[in-house]
């Protein structure tokens, strides 16, 4: 192998049984165990997930972000509008269901973090009832369970899976599970119906075939399984079955398939038939014409058997002198043809690759005497047998050795007397030098039957899942039947782990990074842009790991992405930092809630918040004398209950909820409580343009817009003319405008509100 092999042992999973290695080797010696697959790869699940996240961080860049998506979710008497959703690049993990799930079955989850967008609900007649604005601080994610039984390798050597084949799509838009599922279903339909075929596929990895010309993966199947009878899958392993180009995909692995990572966090098995056919078989230099071969299974062992082709041997003429008569022995062209009863095959025996050749044939020969007139004939038999052995180096320095370990030749000549020739032919052949000549010819034809079998660079297999060549370090290999290679995941990236691996920092603030385990005194810390903006990187102390975030008030996006790198000798490990413009979020930002005379749980509003420092914020209501109540004063979520209907004598109550983080920075949410007024104020359906929308006000069915005064309130911006035409401001500083409507109704004033989402294209 051309890779560097090191015996690394830093497992964090459960301690393996003392005889786990012996049991595995005994099982491997029974027979080939790949069930028709070209290779089977096994990785410790925890370490594989950690390395996938490390590779995700190490390669993250601004091009990872997907284009914005806008969708509508209709159902339950209202419409949910998702506008401008932006996603980070997908990250995959292999895990079990939640602890509350009885089956606790393993699964593969694909997650796409949401970093921007707005979410609003629209009731009948286009009335907007709530608006939430997403921020990276909210940590919302589009997740799906991937069906990993259908992976294929395209012409670019990418392992592709179709996102539309995923199940259980979900987006955590709020705490309502049904809303999460409803939005997830719309995203699934979006991938199925609106995304072009070439865009709905997801590349798990890029296979690197540059270092190995023989192994060409074609299709992939993945599965996750628990360790023996473990209740959880924390000690489980990921299995990758690999079908090679030109082969039929293998069969389903049996339930009692041996656990492969009890002693090592990485075990790679190259099928015996693949080793013989794809690697060894491609290195023969046999001078065969129309060479043909096939793999056959005999007595639990595979053999690469050559079934056609022949070696032509040139004619030989030898002058002989017996003392009583002189003559010439003529041997016509002899062809050593493969096929019964001749044999040429390669197989695995006693932990070695053994190549054997045996061939024999018969031709008529003739001896022409010069001392008398007689030309007797006879059958001449020639055969050859040769064996060469290639050995696997157990220390992992090479898979198959680069030279012959054993090499032996012997040839034999048999003369079958012809009745015409009698003993003369036998006599003349024995005394001639023909035997030596024949031996020389056959030996020359068989010399260099096989050139040295090359080292096998296993990265062509490892790159099916991992992107970095040093992710898996192999420490030993053996050839009990299949070629099996043992090693560990992430020796250069998982020896130490940066904590926190993902951090959210307010611009201008600091974040202390550390290594776990402690004790690495010669660590060097560095930082680089992960979003393509080197101006907004910040700095990190090279020895202490204290990071100072940049001032990103002039940054065009909501966050700058920075990669922190810890280097310790040959080890490198990473953390991803999101530098934010604000420290606290609360959603929904604004809610319009219609309540009736009888109190109901539907009157309540659930709010959630996130803070950059991870500390629970405090909550309070702006005192108006008519305000409702909050369930708690601290925490990351809260429930607002409006004042009962019979305690309020006005049509509308506007409550402001103020959430404050540990640094004293505030974020406000607005709740408008509508006590069932007969005034109906809303945006006129179909009137919205890119910058304007017509507002209207009705009392019952009567349009009283002409008698209504509109005013922008509560942080909104824009202008409204005397006819109720709203125009948004050039610079949108708030995701909504809450418009106060004052209507004259038979000499009395009636107040109502219209919630306008911004930008106006959201409501169009």
Q: Would you identify the regions where 5 or more consecutive residues have pLDDT less than 50? A: 1-15, 97-104, 394-413, 417-422
Helix percentage range? 10-25%
Strand content: 35-45%
**C-alpha Rg (nearest Å):** 39 Å
End-to-end Cα distance, whole Å, is: 61 Å
The total domain count is 5
Structural class: mainly beta
Q: Calculate the mean pLDDT score and round it.
A: 76
Number of helical elements: 7
Largest β-sheet summary = 11 strands, mixed
Count of beta strands: 51
Broad shape: elongated
Structural key phrases:
single chain; 764 residues; mainly beta; Immunoglobulin-like; 5 domains; elongated
Structural features, described:
By secondary structure, the chain is mainly beta. It has 5 domains: 56-147 and 166-199, no CATH class; 285-443, no CATH class; 497-578, Immunoglobulin-like (Sandwich); 584-674, Immunoglobulin-like (Sandwich), CATH 2.60.40; 679-762, Immunoglobulin-like (Sandwich). The chain is built from 7 helices and 51 strands. The strands form 10 sheets. Strands 2, 3, 4, 5, 6, 7, 10, 37, 39, 42 and 43 form an 11-stranded mixed sheet that branches. The longest helix is centred in the first third of the chain and has 17 residues, at 177-193. The radius of gyration is 39 Å and the shape is elongated. The two termini are 61 Å apart.
């Amino acid at each position: 192998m051309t890779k560097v092999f090191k015996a690394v042992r830093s497992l964090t999973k459960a301690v393996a049984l003392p005889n786990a290695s012996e049991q595995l080797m005994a099982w491997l010696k029974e027979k080939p165990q790949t069930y028709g697959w070209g290779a089977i790869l096994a990785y410790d699940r925890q370490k594989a997930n950690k390395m996938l996240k490390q590779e995700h961080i190490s390669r993250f860049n601004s091009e990872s972000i997907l284009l914005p998506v806008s969708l509508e979710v209709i159902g339950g008497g209202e419409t949910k509008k998702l506008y401008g959703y932006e996603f980070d690049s997908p990250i995959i993990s292999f895990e079990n269901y939640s602890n509350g799930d009885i089956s606790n079955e393993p699964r593969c989850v694909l997650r796409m973090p949401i970093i921007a967008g707005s979410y609003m609900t629209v009731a009948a007649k286009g009335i907007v009832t709530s608006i939430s604005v997403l921020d990276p601080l909210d940590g919302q994610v589009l997740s799906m369970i991937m069906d990993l039984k259908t992976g294929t390798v395209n012409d670019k050597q990418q392992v592709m899976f179709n996102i539309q084949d995923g199940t259980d799509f979900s987006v955590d838009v709020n705490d309502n599970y049904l809303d999460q599922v409803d939005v997830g279903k719309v995203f699934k339909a979006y991938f199925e119906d609106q995304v072009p075929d070439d865009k709905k596929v997801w590349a798990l990895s890029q296979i690197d075939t540059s270092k190995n010309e023989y192994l060409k993966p074609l299709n992939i199947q993945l599965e996750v399984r628990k360790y023996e009878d473990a209740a959880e899958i924390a000690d489980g392993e990921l299995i990758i079955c690999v079908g090679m180009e030109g082969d039929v995909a293998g069969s389903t692995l049996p339930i009692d398939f041996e656990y492969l990572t009890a002693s090592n966090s990485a075990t790679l098995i190259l099928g015996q038939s693949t080793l013989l056919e794809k690697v060894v078989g491609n290195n023969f230099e046999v001078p065969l014409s129309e060479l043909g071969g096939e793999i056959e299974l005999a007595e639990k062992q595979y053999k690469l058997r050559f079934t056609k082709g022949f070696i032509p041997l040139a004619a030989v003429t030898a002058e002989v002198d017996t003392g009583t008569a002189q003559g010439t022995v003529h041997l016509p062209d002899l062809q050593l043809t493969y096929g019964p009863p001749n044999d040429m095959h390669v197989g695995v025996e006693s932990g070695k690759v053994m190549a054997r050749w045996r061939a024999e044939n018969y031709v008529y020969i003739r001896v022409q005497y010069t001392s008398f007139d007689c030309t007797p004939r006879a059958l001449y038999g020639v055969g050859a047998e040769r064996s060469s052995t290639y050995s696997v180096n157990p220390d992992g320095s090479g898979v198959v050795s680069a030279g012959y370990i054993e090499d032996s030749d012997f040839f034999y000549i048999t003369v079958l007397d012809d009745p015409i020739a009698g003993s003369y032919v036998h006599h003349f052949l024995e005394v001639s030098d023909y035997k030596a000549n024949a031996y020389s010819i056959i030996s020359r034809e068989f010399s260099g039957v096989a050139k040295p079998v090359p080292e096998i660079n296993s990265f062509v297999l490892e790159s099916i899942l991992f992107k970095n060549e040093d992710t898996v370090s192999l420490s030993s290999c053996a050839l009990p039947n299949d070629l099996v290679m043992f090693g560990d995941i992430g020796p250069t990236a998982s020896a130490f782990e940066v904590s926190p691996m993902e951090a959210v920092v307010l611009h201008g603030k600091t974040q202390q990074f550390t290594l776990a385990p402690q004790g690495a005194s010669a660590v060097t810390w560095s930082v680089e842009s992960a979003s393509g903006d080197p101006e907004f990187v910040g700095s990190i102390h090279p020895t202490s790991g204290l990071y100072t975030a940049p001032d990103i008030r002039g940054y065009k996006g909501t966050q700058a992405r920075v990669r922190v790198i810890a280097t310790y000798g040959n080890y490198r490990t990473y953390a991803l930092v999101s530098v934010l413009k604000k420290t606290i979020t609360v959603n929904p930002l604004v809610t319009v809630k219609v309540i009736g005379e009888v109190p109901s749980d539907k009157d309540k509003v659930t709010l959630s918040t996130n803070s950059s420092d991870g500390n629970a914020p405090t909550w309070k209501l702006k005192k108006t004398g008519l305000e409702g109540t909050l369930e708690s004063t601290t925490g990351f979520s809260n429930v607002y209950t409006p004042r009962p209907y019979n305690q309020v004598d006005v049509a509308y109550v506007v409550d402001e909820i103020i959430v404050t983080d540990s640094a004293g920075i505030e974020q406000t949410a607005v709740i408008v409580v509508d006590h069932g007024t007969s005034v109906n104020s809303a945006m006129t359906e179909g009137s919205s343009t890119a910058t304007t929308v017509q507002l209207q006000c009705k009392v019952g069915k009567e349009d009283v817009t002409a008698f209504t005064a509109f005013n922008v309130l509560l942080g909104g911006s824009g202008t409204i003319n005397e006819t109720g035409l709203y125009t948004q401001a050039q610079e949108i500083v708030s995701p909504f405008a809450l418009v106060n409507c004052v209507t004259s109704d038979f000499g009395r004033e009636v107040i109502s509100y219209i919630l306008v989402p911004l930008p106006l294209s959201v409501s169009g």
